[in-house]
Amino acid sequence: MTKRVVVVGASAAGLAVVETLRRDGFDGRITMAGEESVAPYDRPPLSKEILSGSWAEERVWLRSDAALAGLDLDLRLGARAVRADPAARTVEFADGSVVGYDELVIATGVRPRQLPGTDGLAGVHLLRTLDDARRLRAVIEEKPRLVIVGAGFLGAEVASVARAAGAEVTLVSDLEAPLSDVLGPDLGGLLVDLHREHGVQVVTGSRVREVAGAGGRAHGVRLADGRLIEGDAVLVSIGSAPNAEWLAGSGIETGNGVLCDEFCQAGPGVWAAGDVAAWTHPAWSGRIRLEHRTNAAEQGMAVARNILGARTPFAPVPYIWSDQYDRKIQIYGLPRGADAFAVTEGSTADRKLVALYGKNDVVRAAAGINMARSVRAARAHVAARTAWDEVVAQKGVPA
Amino acid sequence: MQIAIDEGKCCGAGQCVLAAPDVFDQRDEDGIVVLLDAEPGEDQHAAVREAAAVCPAMAIVVDE
Rounded to 5 degrees, what angle do the CA atoms A327, A15, A49 make? Predict the structure, then answer.
């Protein structure tokens, strides 16, 4: 019987691990350590309700102090893990303390990528932590000229919040068709049009060479072609990198994250969950790593149950959502890389629709815009990997 | 078991409906959770706990 579980990372995934362990009857010792010095909080609202100020900040905490206390944890906040030794089964923290484990769960998440040369430059923002969101919110309230580098979901959500707050927004993407890499040209184009209609300057096909600064302060970004896009503040939202470097030399295999099998296990007594975990999804070839809020909870639960002996492969239907202006985009499955696309309900003209994505003749993903109930129904086709022709013919949509 | 939902937090993911379809549904227009049974019977308790745990918006509070 496992006596001691150490969870490194105290966000959604780590919390799901420890809650599931307790709910399923584990009564051994649990250490949960988080690098940030605050209690576990939720991240999706940081680019939505917290950034806009529509929520009081207290709504961002994942659990009340009482609920955390009820989990009977050795909770270590402000504790950065610096080394793991899977032979000795220990984890060392930055303060020099060493904790032994029977089972280690790595849930250290990701950190945003930064542009080079921005160290010490004021007015350059990232958005990952609650403090990041507070700083950016204070800036947006000043109605600045905001330049957003990177037009993925994070950049697009911030653009929408910043426009609503009255900021002038320029969204810069190195892609010719932002969001189309994930969603395909129809829905990617729909969203870009939506941003333009709301007054966002969308600059496409433009690589940013550097943040332009003078006197220690950013005043815009310099594009690869030499053009300067002026701004009072810059948000860099160009993706994330897994926090796995601390495992270098430990023998725990890392690459694009912590490399795991289909049980989310990285080695004897070592597991990973959440954004940092690259695992073998039984339905897809190769390992995948998802930076999704829903996946953090589901994977945390799966790891806890596998620690307790379930030995169940982790095979979720991925899910994400994004709020942009008055549109809610919801995606089940992985639309990236699809070779077939069809709108099965609603229309792109109405910006209210359900669309299916296929690959190799099976349904691979479903996306909805402001049709939450219908897209959830379409999820069944993703889960079942329904034959493309079957479902699209059924819906009366030409393939 | 007593269930409370926070509509303001709900993000319309529908994970709760997938976990416990006899207890949760979604509104047609915006996908916001609809509580079908605030005090479900014991046969639903495990599914409800699962629903609360997978909710990505922490919008379901279960009091036991």
Answer: 25
- How would you classify the pairing of strands A103-106 and A110-112? unpaired
pTM above 0.90, yes or no: yes
Grouping H, G, I as helix, E, B as strand and the rest as coil, residue A87 is coil
Model confidence pLDDT, tens digit, residues A136-182: 999 999 999 999 999 999 999 999 999 999 999 999 999 999 999 99
Residue A321 CA to residue A269 CA, distance in Å, equals 33
What values do phi and psi take at A252, rounded to 5? -80, 125
Q: Which of B25, B58, B60 to mutate to test the interface with A (most CBs of A within 10 A)?
A: B58
Highest averaged pLDDT of the listed ranges A112-121, A197-206, A372-381: A197-206
Phi/psi zone of residue A152: left (φ > 0), alpha (ψ -120 to 50 degrees), beta? beta
Give the pLDDT confidence of B3-33 residue by residue, as tens digits.
999 998 898 889 999 999 999 999 877 889 9
User: Which residues from B are below 8 Å from A332, CB to CB?
Assistant: none
Residue holding tokens 């303060």?
A95
Residues contacting residue A144 through CB under 8 Å, at least 6 positions apart: A167, A168, A231, A232, A233
- Strands A103-106, B24-26: pairing is unpaired
Most A CBs within 10 A among B1, B6, B11, B49, hence the mutation to make, goes to B11
Q: Note whether A59 contacts B9, CB cutoff 8 Å.
A: yes
